[in-house]
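Researcher: Re-running this chain for the archive, since the previous output was lost when a drive failed. Same request as before.
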Amino acid sequence: MRLRHRLLAEVLGTALLLAIVIGSGIMAERLAGGNVALALLANTLATVFGLYVLIEVFGPISGAHFNPAVSLAMAWRGELDKRALPPYILAQLLGAMLGAWLAHAMFELPVLQFSAKLRDGPAQWLAEAVATAGLLLVILRAPAARVSSLVAAYIGAAYWFTASTSFANPAAAFGRMFSDSFAGIAPSSVPGFMVAQLLGAAAGLLLHRWLGESEARA
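Model: Regenerated C-alpha cells:
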C-alpha cells in the first residue's frame, strides 16, 4: 500500500474517531438532562462501536493506528518503517483537529474553540499511563483476527475504570483541546497527558517483552 494511501487512512480514521468521541459527547450532554453518568455511558458506547468499525475499515490500509503512541511502538518493533513515523504522527494530529472541527460543524457550534476543562494531577496522569499501557498490551497480544473487537472493548472498559476516562492517545488529547465540550481537555492539561501516555506506551512494550511474544498474535 502506498504511503499516501496509508496517510490518508490515518487522517480520515483519526478525524472520524475524534468526531465520534466529541460529537457523541455533545449529543449525550444535551440529552442526558444533567446526568453525567448517563452522558458518559452514551459517549462510551458510541466510541466502542465507532472504534471497532474504524479499525476494521482502515486496518488493512494503514494498520489503523490513529494514535502516535501506537505508531511509535510499531516503529520501535520494526512493524512500521521509521521513515513513515513522522508523517504518520502528523497525519494523526491533523486528523484529530479536523475531527473536532467536524463535530462542531455538525452540531452548529463555533468551529474554532478551545476547551476550558482542566484535567490535571498525578491521579489523572497515572490513569493515562495505565490506560495506554493496557492498550498496547491488547494490541500486541490479541489474536490478529480479534484485535478490533478487543481494542474497542478495552477502551470502553477503560472509560470507566480510569480517572481520566482513558484518552490513551496523544492525538486524541491534541484534538480534544480544540473542543470546549463534554469530551474536551484544556490546552494546559495536554502536555501532562501526552507525557503520561508515552510513558504508558513504553511500559506496555516492556510488559509485552517480559510476557514473551504472543503465539496467538504470531
